[in-house]
Amino acid sequence: MKSRRKYSYIFKHYLLTATVNKVRLFLTSIGYFTAVFLFAFGTIYTDSYYNSQFSIIEDYYNSSVILKKGDYYNALCDEVYGYRSGKIVTDYVKSTDNTLLSVKQDDGSYLSVLARFHFLSEPSDVLAEITDEFDYLPVRRSIVEGRLLDSDDFDGELNSVVIDKSTADLLFDGESAVGKTFTLSSMIGQAVISYNSEAGDQKTEYTVVGVVNDSANAKSRVLKAQREISSKNENVILHTTVWAAFSGQGEFDYYSACSFDDESDFLDFSGKLQVVKYSAEAKGENQFISTRDDLFQKKTDELSDTRNLLALVEAVLMIVTGISIMGITFFSVKERVSEIGIRKAFGAGKLDIIFQFMFETVIIAFVTSVLSVFIAFMACRILEGRISAGMQSLFYVHVKFSTLLLPVFMGVLEAILCSIIPSVYGAKIKVTDALRFE
Question: How far, in Å, CA of 323 to CA of 233, rounded?
């Protein structure tokens, strides 16, 4: 009980001495706040930016592999059909985009919606799209209204298509898109929106049978278009995707999406894929194989330089603010030399003096670090929309507990490191020198 009271008294005393000098408290708090706030903001921003960029790839249907015509294509397709849960859907991607919509806006600029058509060999709920980096991205879609392409669409003469929600909103102004049609001129490739079945010569009419949710890639494209509109660009282009049944006409790139309903089958096939890829690379043969892990690795390599640069900036900021904090702690020791002498005269040892100054600094650092992290998080949330619009891509605040804990830990660690030298200096002051000090 006495020991508890003793340590409670010491804690209250150190807390009092840490806050008694308002100028020193203010300067120290500002130093820590600046360092930790910038570090926390940078950490939250970096992690959120990374997660936002990877969200496009996270849409990738995990149990699937993309194959393109190559030396091992037929052999790999035979392997897929050897699994009970294996399925192959060939996607014939049109080489050129079609203009779905071209609208003159109030400010005189033009908004053009360009669509890349994907013609499927058979019904599938995995509908792919081509990203701005020209990566082939298979995404399992959920239906917003209507339905996906079925066997009747492949057997019948009706040119049925599926579009995503953002495209439906643009073409039909927020109204229900199912059952409505648009036509593409074979001459200029521009869509004519129609609410009936009339179609002129040399035009291909498409009927919307379903609307699916927007992928992260589609949302990113819409944000880029909105940014260009707000920047008052004369010509704004929005790329989108339309899915239809394969008709056998036109120039196409061929992709085969191999999907598996059984995870164990997918893992077994992935192991065989690695052997094929290594063998093809060793022989210099052409083989296009793409998996979710390949895209993740590609994106990681692209963003590594940006992350390293941000980490370097954060480290420099911490060092600069740490030096200023060390100076403030030295100032605190100098102004309390007499107090050090009195404490030593009453039996305080060097470790007691060191602990006192380090404890005071850590308390201030901990409180200001928690406050800094909270304000940095709120700042990121408030600026979330502006950051997303400014980058012309998806950005949403995504934090884990470790992301919030790291800046607090770094703030306390900086306090400990920056207070060691001043605290040791104060502990080495002799009693006689301290009592004579004015």
Answer: 47
pTM given for the model:
0.66
Are 197 and 248 part of one and the same domain? yes
Query: Using CA atoms, how far apart are residues 122 and 136, in angstroms rounded to an integer?
Result: 18
Number of domains in the chain: 2
Q: pLDDT, tens digit, for every residue of 105-116?
A: 666 677 788 888
Is 272 within the bounds of a domain?
A: no
Instruction: Match 């969200």 to its residue by tokens.
Output: 55
Report pLDDT for 194. 45
User: What is the C-alpha separation between 420 and 321, in angstroms, rounded?
Assistant: 15
**Is residue 78 included in any domain, yes or no?**
no
Q: Is 198 left (phi over 0), alpha (psi -120 to 50) or beta?
A: beta
Note whether residue 313 is domain-resident.
yes
Task: Answer for the pair 414, 66: CB distance below 8 angstroms, yes or no.
Answer: no
Return the closest-CA partner of residue 419 out of 2, 3, 10, 14: 14
Pairwise CA distance, residues 220 & 216, whole Å: 6
- Which residues span the domain enclosing 351? 2-56+300-436
Q: Which residue has the tokens 């005393």?
A: 13
Whether residue 256 sits in one domain with residue 132: yes
